[in-house]
Please model this.
Amino acid sequence: MSANHDLPVGKIDCCQVCGSKKLYKILDLGHQPPCDSLRWPRQLDEPETIYPLRFLVCESCSLGQIDYAVAAEELFFPDYPYRSGITATLVEKLSRTAVSTLSRFAFPSGSLVLDIGSNDGTVLKAFQERGMRVLGIEATNIAKIANESGVETLQAFFNEDVATQIRTTHGPASVVAATNVFAHIASLGSIIRGVSHLLEDGGVFVTESHYVLDLLETSQYDSIYHEHLRYYSLKSLIALFKQYDFTVCDVERIDNYGGSIRVFARKGQGHQVAPSIAELLAVEEQAGLYGREVYDDFAAKVLKARQDLLALVLEAKKSGKTVIGIGCPGRASTLMNFTGLAPDLIPYIAEQSTSLKLGLFLPGLHVPIVDEKRMFEEQPDYAIMLSWHYAEPIIRKLREKGLKSKIVIPLPEVKIYED
Ligand SMILES: [Zn+2]
Model:
C-alpha cells in the first residue's frame, strides 16, 4: 500500500489517498476552531483551541484535502448538534440514496443494509420502507433518537473491530452506506477494511461526499473545515478503492450539500463498470481538475467574495443599518471566521425554533444563535443567508413567514435579494 490511510492526529504532509508529496497549496483560511464546536455560555470564559485550516490538492491523484487532522473526539463529541431528519427537503434528498442504490442492484428483500454515521436514521428509514433489514452506526447521542424511532442503531465509531462484531451478530451485509461522512473520517483504512469484512462478495459500498468540482465551480470555501478532511474527485476515489480490492462501478452527481457525488464501489474485481465512470473522468479532465489554473481561479474568487461581503457589512454598519445571519450550518463557522464577522457587526444568527443549536455560540467569534422569532420581530435591514446552498426554498419560506429584510447571499458571489 502506498499511503497510510489511518491518519495520525496533527500535520499531514503527504496525500491522504495516494501518499504523494506533490501537494499544491490553494488557500489558507488561517487558524480556525472546529466548525461544529459550538460554545455553551459557560465555555465563553474558557480557552478555545484553533487549528490550521489550509486547502491543498494532490497533483498526482487530484484529491482536494486539508493538511491538519484534529482528533475525532474533538470534532464529533457526544452532543454533536446536527440532526439530518430535521428539514423536509433534506429527508427527501437522503431517501434518494436508497432509491438510487436499489434501482441499480437487485438485492432480495430482507438483505442487510448498514449506514456509517447514520445520524437519526433518516437514510436507513428509506431502505427499511423498501423491505431491507437495517442497522445504523452512529457515534453521537443522536443514536438514541434513531433507536426510539425504530431504526436499530449501535452507538459507536465504526472501525474494523465494530465490523467484526456486527458480522457476528447480524451476518454479512449487501449494502454499506456512508453519506457525508466518508470525507470526514481520519481512519479511512480501518473503515474500508471494516466495510470489506462486512460486505458479502459483490456487495456494494455507497458513499456520498462533497464533490470537489462543485466546490470549485461555486466557490464553496465555506465547506472547508476540519471535520472535512478530503474533497474527492472521481479520479482520487478510484485511486483509493483500487488499493482495497473494490471496483468503482457507477457514479452520479447529486445536489446534496451544494453538490456531491454518489459513488458505488463493489467488493472484488470483474464487476461491470457503467459508462458514467469514463464520462465523469472526462468532465474532470476538461474542467482542469488535473492542472493548477482552476484552483488559482477558485482562490481569487474566494478572496473577492470575502472582501465584498465584509465591505457590504461595514458599509451597512456605518450607515446605521442592522445585519444578522440566518441559519447556522457547520459551514457558517468557516465563512464567519474567515470574513471576521464578529458580534459587533453580526449581533446574532437566527435558527428555526426546533434547532438544537439555540442558546449556543458560534465557535471562535461567539456570535449567539437565537430563535428566529427575534428576527421576525426586529426585521433587520440585512440578513446574510449562511445556508446559501439551499437559498431558494429557504428564502421563499422566510418571505411567507413575513421576513422583510434584504437577504444577502454570500457565495459564489455576493448578491442581494430585496424581495
Ligand atoms: Zn494523491
The two ends are 56 Å apart (CA to CA). The pocket of zinc ion is lined by residues 15, 17-18, 20, 58, 60-61, 63 (CB under 6 Å). The domain at 84-291 is CATH 3.40.50.150 (Rossmann fold).
